[in-house]
Amino acid sequence: MAVRSLMSTTTELRPLRVAFLAYRGNPHCGGQGVYTRHLTRELASLGHEVTVFGGPPYPVLDDGVAFVPVPSLDLYRQPDPFRTPRLRELRTAVDVVEFAIMCAAGFPEPLTFSLRARAALATRLGSFDVVHDNQCLGTGLLGMMDDGWPVLATVHHPITVDRELELAGEADRWRRLTLRRWYGFVGMQTRVVRRLPSVLTVSESSRSDIAAHLGVDLPRIAVVPVGVDHTRFRPLPEVAKVPGRMVTTASADVAMKGLVPLLEALAKVRIERHAELVVVGSPRPQSGAAATIERLGLDGAVRFVSGLSDEALVRLYAEADVAVVPSLYEGFSLPAIEAMACGVPVVATTGGALPEVVGATGETALLVPPGDVEALAMSLGRALDDDALRRRLSRAGRARAVERFTWQATAEGTVAQYRHLLSGRVLAPC
Questions:
Q1: By C-alpha distance, which of 324, 398, 357, 52 is closest to 202?
Q2: What is the pLDDT of residue 255?
Q3: Each residue of 255-275: pLDDT tens digit?
């Protein structure tokens, strides 16, 4: 007890040494990569020593953040996903487990990354004050706790929601079986997260859902919203608008992102006016989105772009009349606040935390029920046709993003939770 008390006192007084775990950290592969990059940068800016342990696709990190690669078999890499590794690549038992789970149509990375990260940390005992997991939630985290590491995790939202939405939208029985196998890791994540002393999440909506879906006690869940770099994501008045252009982000072409309802709405919007859609992301082969584009004859009206730099993304927003967040569910929504910070009028659904993020009153964004094609088409048409409305939403959205969501505030709130964990206290509510 005396040792713990001394540790708590010293960590309250000095900068912290943080081991940050990112099993998939590339910012072009979704929100977890963006979170990794910007949070670790701001933690370092506050004077803390941050080392990212990351699996492929490896994270993009800023100066001042150290990196330790945690190699895997990288079985889903492009352009050869679901590849068969050479026999000489199977050097450890974890390698064999990774390949075996993939062969059984499962997703092994949360488990296998956590086991490899535990091994990497075992050689550095005493080098860090806290281990922060970014929604890997693999069994290896429990081993880290057994090894003596103070561990907390960020859960952006419960993956059970993704699983339920995908299953609900899939009629084919074989495909449903495949989806259940793919999401087999969810049971492990549920068992692990229930044993963690501290869980961070990004919205009150996600906090409630984590408690309801994963069985985590509410007092152990703290809300620390994510942020936007408003000096980088900003209006570019010198860039000409492309009339009728809408932009959306679907970095993961899954049902939860609501791309199919958006495409259905786009077809309706185009009946009375010119409209086009740029999707930030890549469609999956034989996905619902690709089939919908073909069925509705939208080949010339929809364009997919991926791998954009921040500068290119900001310019894309500057060219757009409207940004759309059609998600059936969001635990937060980085694309929403990035678009708002760029001064782009936003049309969003009320799925999950979106009203909490973009504002629920209609003054900073237009809101529609998730999956409601008619309502979405009507709001998109209204926004495209009303210049004054777009100007009002642009100003109000930018103000909300800048005032409420900054990465510095995210880092400060996260450090407060580190210190509460290390002091042995219950998480402070945010």
A1: 357
A2: 82
A3: 889 999 999 999 999 999 999
d(CA 29, CA 329): 18
Whether the CB-CB separation of 184 and 106 falls below 8 Å is answered with yes
Cβ–Cβ under 8 Å, residues 83 and 56 = no
Domains of the chain with bracketed CATH: 2-227+407-423 (3.40.50.2000), 245-404 (3.40.50.2000)
Q: Which residues in 276-339 belong to E strands, given as ranges?
A: 276-280, 302-305, 322-325
Cβ atoms of 239 and 419 closer than 8 Å: no
Q: How many CB atoms lie within 10 A of CB 238?
A: 6
Going across the sheet that includes 276-280, the strands are: 302-305, 276-280, 245-249, 322-325, 346-349, 366-368
Using the predicted structure, report yes or no on whether residue 2 has a pLDDT greater than 80.
no
CA pair distance 240, 255, nearest whole angstrom? 33
Helix (H) or strand (E) holding 21: strand 17-22
Tokens of 325: 């967040």
Region of 217 (left: φ > 0; alpha: ψ -120 to 50; beta: rest) is beta
C-alpha 206/C-alpha 222 separation (Å) is 10
Return the closest-CA partner of residue 152 out of 220, 88, 252, 70: 220
Q: Are 141 and 196 in contact (CB under 8 A)?
A: yes
Q: What is the distance between the alpha carbons of residues 117 and 137, in angstroms, rounded to a whole number?
A: 12
Distance, in Å, from the CA atom of 323 to the CA atom of 304, rounded to the nearest integer, reads: 15
φ/ψ of 194, rounded to 5, equals: -70, -20
Average pLDDT, the chain: 92
- φ, ψ at 264 (rounded to 5°): -60, -40
CA 230 to chain centre: 18
Q: What is the pLDDT of residue 4?
A: 44
* Gyration radius of the chain over CA positions: 22
Q: Cα separation of 315 and 294, whole Å?
A: 28
- How far apart CA 266 and CA 166 sit, in angstroms, is 22
Distance, in Å, from the CA atom of 45 to the CA atom of 63, rounded to the nearest integer, reads 10
**Per-residue three-class SS string for 52-100:** EEECCCCCCCCCCCEEEECCCCCCCCCCCCCCCCCHHHCCCHHHHHHHH
List Cα–Cα distances, 310 to 22, 230, 315, 345, 404, in angstroms: 20, 12, 9, 19, 21
Residues of the chain with pLDDT > 70, as a percent, come to 93
Instruction: Decide: helix, strand or coil at residue 222.
Output: strand
Give the per-residue pLDDT at 78: 82
